[in-house]
Amino acid sequence: MVWKKAAVTAFGLITAMMPSFASAQEGAEPVYFVGAQLVDVETGAIQGKSAIKVTGELISAIGTTDTLAIPDEAEVVDVSGTYVIPGLINVHEHMNTPPKASYTEAMMRRELYGGVTAVRDPADDTRLLSEIARAAKLGEIPSPDIYYATFMAGPSFFKDPRTQASASGEVAGKAPWMQAITDDTDIPQAIAWARGTSATGIKIYANLPGHLVKALTEEAHKQGMLAWSHSMVFPATPSDSIDAGVDVVSHICDFAYEAFDEKPTSYPDRQNFPIPAEKFAAGDNPVLQDLFERMAEQGTILDPTLFVYQPRPEFARYSDAPPRCPYNAITGMLLQAYDAGVPMVTGTDGFSAWDDPYLSVHIEMDLMQRAGMEPVDVLKSATLNGAKAIGQEELMGTIQPGKLANLVFLNENPLNDINNTKAIELVVKRGTQYPRSNYISLTEEEARPRPMDSVRISTPVME
Length: 463
Known about the structure:
By secondary structure, the chain is α/β, with parallel strands linked by helices. It contains twelve helices and 20 strands. The strands form three sheets. Strands 9, 10, 11, 12, 13, 14, 15, 16 and 17 form a nine-stranded mixed β-sheet that branches. A six-stranded mixed β-sheet has the order 4-3-8-18-19-20, with no helix packed on it.
C-alpha cells in the first residue's frame, strides 16, 4: 500500500488531545491503523481508506491514507478490507452474582475479544468489582472497562437471595453497596456511602414509592452520580421514574404496567399481573405513547433487555405457565419507543451459553434488528448511546480524536446486517491490540459461577 506523507490540510486531518490524558501519552510511540472503512455510528456514513493515529490510550488524529502524514519508522497496522466501528458497550450485565473472580474474569475475556470494550454492572458485590475494574482499566487482565452501581431498594426486597449473596459477610440492606431505603433514610448519607465504593451510579431496583425514587435521583445527581432505575420500581411506576429524572430505565416489559388500571405494588407481586399481548403488540398504546414522547424529549435512555425476554427453550424447566411478557408485546413496545425517538442501548442482563464463542450483546443487537430497528440505529445503541448511559461519552462511543482508542475491525459491513459485528478481525482497547485469532475459548470449569450455597433462585434471569 502506498500513501502520501505530505502536509495535511484542515479538511484532510483532524487533531485533538484530551488534556487530562496528556501526561499519559508523553513518550508513547504512535501506531497507525490504515486502510479500514470507518463507520460513523451517528449518521451511517462511511469514510474509505481511513488512517487512525493512536498514541498511547488515545486516538490522536484521523485522516485518510492520502492525507495523514506517517513517518517511515512508524508502526503501521494494515487493516485494509475491514470496517472499523467504536468498541461495543453492554450496559446491563450482572457479572458477579454470586461473587467469583475467576468466573468474572473469564466472562470479561470473552466480552473483550467479542468486541465489547466497556460494560455496566447495575448491582453486584462492589468489593470484588472494584478490584476487577481496576485491573481491567490498567490492562492487567483482558477485559472491557467496568462501570458499576450500588443497589437500592425497599427493606422488604432484601429477602431476595441474590442480595444476600452480593452482601456476603455483611447484612443485605445495610452495606454501602446494598442499601435499604425508607422515609427515615438519610438520603445524602446513603448516596455518599454509594460514592465511597467507587461506583459511578446507583441502581434503584424495587419496592420503593415514587417520592423516594425522586429523592434518590436528585441527590445522586447533586453528588455527581448517575441514577439507573428499573422501569417499574413497585409501587413506583414508569412515569414516576421518568418524572424523577433517572438517566437510564431498564426492562421494557414493565412499561406495560403504566397502562394497567390496577398495578402490582411489589416486585414479587408482578408475577400475578401477566402482560396481555393484544394491548401492546401493535405498538400503538396511547398511554405508552405519551410516556415515550416524554422520554425522548428528556433524553431518558431505554435499556430494553430483549435478551431476557426472547423465547428460550432452556427456561421451560422453570415453569409450565405462559411467559409474563409475551414476546410480541415486547417487540411492539420496543418499536413504539423507537418510533417515538427514545434513545436505546444494548443491555442483556445475562450471558450467552458458556460454549458460545460470541456474546449476549450480539444476540441483543440481532433481536433489535429483527424487531424492526435499522442496523445503524442498533449500532448507535451499542456504542454512542451506551457511552452516554455510563456517563463516558467524552471518552468513548464514537471514533474521534481525543477519545479512547476503543476500536473493532470487522471483515463485513455492519450496516448491511448487524450480525456482521461478529466478523471480528481485531479489537483495540485503550490502544492495546487483541486479535480475534488470539482468543482462548472458555472452559466449562472457568465459566461455572460459584454456587448459591443451598439457595435456589426461582427465576432464570435477573429481570
